[in-house]
Hints:
GO terms for molecular function: DNA binding. The chain is α/β, with parallel strands linked by helices.
Amino acid sequence: MIRVLLVDDQPLLRSGFRALLDLENDIExxxxxxxxxxxxxxxxxxxxxxxxxDIQMPVVDGIEATRRIAADPALAGVRVVILTNYGxxxxxxxxxxxxxxGFLVKDIVPEDLLHAVRVAARGDxxxxxxxxxxxxxxxxxQPLRAVPGPGLEELTNREREAVVLVARGLSNDExxxxxxxxxxxxxxxxxxxxxxxxxxxxxxLVILAYESGLVSPGS
Length: 219
């Protein structure tokens, strides 16, 4: 059973999401919160698998709530999926940097919402390659000074190659074709790299690759 915490300051929207999720046999909404502070308290109490969190909320916003969840060892199993009205904007970028596993636009169709919850619960990447490329575009237009990150020296050559390809926006299938390996082996390389670099998910792996200098903007 996938346990979900809904976090949004609009009760009507929470009710709509809950009604949809509760219809599924493998998904259970364990709690609802109206702000980020309440979200943190309920996350610690219920330890959900997924926290669907709105960005703009009173008291503590979604970005800060995400940052606190990512920093709390007791909540290491909670994957944050950001809810937004605006698509891929600056708020979403900041939330991904804070530790979110991905994001959804609030007008998402029901089937895509259910698929996203299940994908996130499996620990797979919720960001489509097209969204990863938007992250890349941000680094190309706003290059950062490279700061070597922990774990880079632990990567094997194949893992390093896989990280570079992830940072260039390739999916696991595309990485497999590029490296002449199976998709399962490509996924293994990516997952091991995430573990060594302490990246919670694929989005953070892209960010770490650019911030560490492993990949250069425009390369």
